[in-house]
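Troubleshooting log. The previous run stalled partway through. Resubmitting the same two chains, unchanged.
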Amino acid sequence: MVEKVAEMFYGGLAKGKILGAKCKECRKWTFPPVTACRECGSRKIEYKQVSGEGTVHFYSTSILPPKKFAQYSPYAYGLVELKEGPTFLTMVEGLDASTPDKIAAGNKSLPLKVKAKVSKKAGMDVVVFRLVK
Amino acid sequence: MVGKPMASITGVGCTKFGSVLSTPELKGKTFHELVAEAAFEAMDDASMTGKDIDAFYIGSMLTHGSHVYSHHTQLCDWLGMQLKPALHFATACSTLNTGLGLAAMSVASGKFKSVLVVGAETLSSYPDDNPVKRKAIDPVDLWYWTDFGVDQVYAYHHCYDVATAYGAIPTLGYAKKHGLSKDKMDEAMYYVHKEVRTHSSLNPKAFVTDSLEAAAKKKGFKDTFDYWKSANNPYFAYPTRLLSALNTVDGASAYIITRAEDAKKYHEQPVDIIGFNWAASNYPWYDKDPTNWPIDVTAFAGAYKMAGVTGKDLDYLTVHDCMQIYHLTTSETAGYFGKGESWKAIKEGRTLYNGDKPMNTSGGRHGKGHAFGASPGAETYEIVKQMRGEAGKRQVKKELSIAAQHNHGYGMHAAVTVLKKR
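Second attempt completed without errors. Output:
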């Protein structure tokens, strides 16, 4: 039986828990969780909370965001490396995406530490990151 | 040692790329007619008819523009191939590159002697409950549907932004990795675009046929770099400017694959498929180094191994350039240039049709235009025409023996095929 991973992940977010999958064979993390290990393909995985700690390496914003997220535009969409290893892209709060010059300057200050949080975006609980002061 | 031919390309076809709403060569044509036009050109090129070909594979990605699925049943009689084995397939924007390997395996297995592969896409508009009346597609809707190709459980709902992920971050990554200032990086992307426009302006089947010089002049600029930096070319996703991005178009492309030993029966200058490989990755496509894509590394390594070549053996390279940063990053992954070397080579004009390291002479996904699944067929068409010496004003000056074609298929798939002039 395959677990309802998506429901578990989004249900977890509603309770403030951010779940990933840890492989019992190669010990690598997959984030967000799917039904097998992204690294080695093993189905022997356990769903566990991630630390939420990470590092943002790059970010920018576009003039044609998907219509679902147009209401937040311009927003910083960043490449985050989780402490557990996987990379993930989502909104990063605390980075200035208001103008090209601000984005250029902001990227010069990277990498910076970030912390995950659950935030409602376009009606859904999702994971975003904020800069750690 | 260069590998033996697995199968051969004996006919190619490609429509003009543009809009069925406005481009004179395409105006008023249905999806079905685009398919037939490209396929018939390929058949004529190989001196074959639908009756002579054992099977056909039709590639197309976006049903929202064509209002078609089960493409193979709807098109078989239009192609003169009623009752022939046929199927629809798709790997998004790499579809017709994937078709090269798929058809090569089909003839190499002995099941078929020949296969027609045809791809088509209509992205400007859709038939509005009437096959000859079309309604324009809003670009926001087009991207909403296109984004069905990216992880729909997680990535899309996490504030997904394709232009940043596919254009901006790899560009920022390249600049950082190779110590290029923001101005230097912008200048590097200008030279890539200059190459794109030089090529597309020499390609009568391209969507963008005016040169960068002509476009600048039209807006009152004498200097093309001033035009590049002007408000006419805003940042789409900083540091990626609008002119570094794709143009979505309508169009179709086709080729005929035959057994290598039979190829000369159909065309006196066959082009052999000597290696291919594919790799699929869910999002994200890279780790903290956005210039290094595991799918590309894997696809090139497998295709080169099969072909018995390295990047240094290539006389020509096509990279998938929905965003033009891939002229830099992918040409380096391909080993066509050393790491950090491509931007200098492009600035020196070495990747132009008359340079010593030609690339993307069709004009690529901005200049030739991007008809998603059909796009790679336009690049195969280009390579075959170049190898035969039939590329007209943009004919590559150097002798072409070995070429590699790379495409990305949204979500993300990498397909690499290595071709050799017989």
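Takeaways: The longest helix of chain A spans residues 5-14. The mean pLDDT of chain A is 97.
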